[in-house]
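User: I'm designing a mutation panel for Salt tolerance receptor-like cytoplasmic kinase 1 and want to avoid disrupting the core. Could you give me a predicted structure to guide residue selection? Please restate the sequence first so the numbering is unambiguous.

Assistant: Good idea. Sequence first, for numbering, then the predicted structure tokens:
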Amino acid sequence: MLDGCGLFALARCCCVRGESEREAGGRNDACVSDEPGGGAASMGKGGVAAARRFEWAEIESVTGGFSSRVIGQGGFSTVYLASLTSFRLGAVKVQRSSERLHRAFCQERDVLLSLRHPHVVRLLGYCDERDEGVLVFEYAPNGDLHERLHRSGEKNRVVLPWARRMAIAFQVAMALEYLHESRDPAVIHGDIKASNVLLDANLDAKLCDFGFAHVGFSAAVRPAETRASGRPVMGSPGYADPHFLRSGVATKKSDVYSFGVLLLELVTGREAICAETGCRLTAAVGPSISHGRLADVVDRRLGGDYDTEEAATVAALALRCVSDGPGLRPSMAEVVRELQEKTTALISAVGSKPRDKTVS
């Protein structure tokens, strides 16, 4: 049996295996190429191919003139499945055309160009020739965590097991620790939620969507004025830090709050906002967890196949993360340390394939 430090070291340098069930088409080679034509790409730090600038004609080519399958869509962008080579796939995110959105695209591009972490989605390239900014990412064949956790029944998928949920939580926590503690200045993601956690062919987590990201310890944003002007507000319903909504100041602890909601989702299998009642998950399950009635809220689809002590530890950690006062919340470094020391499910989910080291 590994101790906490041994597990942490192993989890940092090894791939996390997926469960035996895999999605059709979710092959390990269904990843992205750095060059649509297979040409040599410039190498960044740590031997990782650097993102490159695409021409608009290339973007049209890899998406079939934007007729390829749409794999994601939001209010400000559309994501297309792209054939980067005859056997490599990628995801092409095309922003809507506007001066304001182009500025947001440039901000997201610049943040992503500075990041290298195994659990942050990899930017392969970008196109800034036109107002419609384009980002080209690695492809995650297993979709996003929200779909996998809350829509598994609709696609006859096996319920996400407890060990895999804990591995995903640990991976996202490591990604946030990297953003907060290993970057100078720190990066505040600003929109942590289940749909912004992609799952690759091995069901490993890839944090994505840095459209709300801020660089620096804090960033002043005024929610009320933002809504009035029609601009997007940082964060998503159910995940947004109440302190940020009151003060208009986003800090690293805003990400910690959102991560706490994500932890509660993984434990309970419930969405951040109940579609039927509009009740926030934190309000719905917080009292039960606080009074020791954890069995009342753990995802029943698990059929009792989870470690009760571990679940209690993770649920209590989640409540600390969603504390109303930012000063009461742990840092992401503390979250990572507590997860590595007090969860054992990661041991059964860690594989033997070497993982690329984090590159600053």
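For picking mutation sites, this is relevant: Residues 1-41, 224-232, 351-360 have pLDDT under 50 and may be disordered. The CA atoms of residues 148 and 156 lie 11 Å apart.
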